[in-house]
Write a structure and sequence with these properties.
Largest sheet: 6 strands, mixed
Distance between the termini: 39 Å
Order of helices and strands: EEHHEEHEE
Number of strands: 6
Radius of gyration: 15 Å
Shape: globular
Length: 122
């Protein structure tokens, strides 16, 4: 049985920063939850914890939900981490969905590799 590559959308959006075009990358909710875990309003909690925020896009007609991140560095890291867990296919356009909501924490979370050994909880 062959599993089709997961679509990962890569596009620019003016909805995230006053300066205009911001790089955004999103993927289907179930594929992202498989890598980052769930939680939150629709399942974006694990992704939000890893990146300090998440964007949720919804297609109300089809009932599809896509979640992801914004910013060139975050989008690149997001795609790399998905690629490490599954085959992906980059689609260079926005999904057929509207931006439902997005949110960011006030402070960006530290990556575990950057923490001092006495900061890591066991």
């Amino acid at each position: 049985m062959t599993i089709a590559p997961s679509p990962v959308y890569l596009f620019s959006s003016s909805g995230f920063a006053a300066s205009g075009d911001t790089v955004v990358s999103v993927a289907p909710l179930d594929r992202v939850v498989a890598v980052y875990g769930d939680g939150g309003v629709v399942g974006e909690g694990g992704l939000s914890s890893s990146f300090g925020g998440a964007a949720v896009f919804k297609n109300d007609v089809l009932g599809k939900c896509f979640i992801g991140v914004w910013g060139a560095r975050n989008a690149s890291r997001f795609r790399s981490e998905l690629r490490a867990h599954m085959q992906i296919a980059i689609i260079k356009e926005a999904p057929n969905a509207r931006l439902a909501f997005w949110g960011a924490e006030k402070k960006r979370p530290e990556r575990v590799s950057n923490m001092k050994s006495n900061q890591i909880l066991t």
